[in-house]
Write a structure and sequence with these properties.
About 65% of the residues lie in helices and about 0% in strands. By secondary structure, it is mainly α. It has a domain of about 100 residues. It is flat and about 65 Å long. The model has no long low-confidence stretch (mean pLDDT about 90).
Length: about 150
């Protein structure tokens, strides 16, 4: 009998470049791509959060009153599970209040977006319609060089 068997050794053949062979220019290109993606994401999230919502508008004063009510309920609540729900509700409302009181600098986000949008668009082969569908204004797409 020979030492060689038909059983797999458990080692998988390496696919791709050997470790440590990524060039500096490749690393830089990946970094630039991540940064562009983050800028685009922040801008699209800001557009989404600025859209009007259905129903009664949420105001800072309404959130403060709600937090005060939760504090009062917490002071008298005996059931630990109910307290847990109240604490979570308070945390969410405090976060919502923070977001509502922290204005988004749309001009800065828009300018950042315009600076990277064309390269991002070209690398992802996106159509102008996709951007418009997500609420990016035509004028912003023109300034970015995506629309003529």
């Amino acid at each position: 009998m020979s030492d060689q068997t038909s059983e797999p050794s458990g080692e998988k053949p390496r696919i791709g470049l050997p470790p440590g062979t990524m060039t500096e220019s490749h690393r830089l290109a990946l970094k630039v791509g991540r940064e562009r993606g983050q800028i685009v994401r922040r801008y699209l999230q800001a557009i989404e959060s600025a859209k009007p919502r259905r129903g009664r508008p949420i105001t800072p004063e309404g959130l403060r009153k709600s937090i005060e009510k939760i504090d009062a309920d917490l002071a008298t609540e005996k059931d630990p599970l109910r307290k847990l729900d109240l604490v979570q509700s308070k945390i969410k409302k405090q976060k919502d209040l923070e977001e509502l009181e922290s204005p988004i600098d749309m001009v800065a986000l828009e300018n950042e977006f315009i600076g990277v949008a064309k390269d991002y668009n070209d690398s992802k082969e996106l159509s102008p319609e996709a951007w418009l569908e997500l609420g990016v204004p035509r004028e912003v797409l023109r300034r970015a060089g995506i629309l003529n």
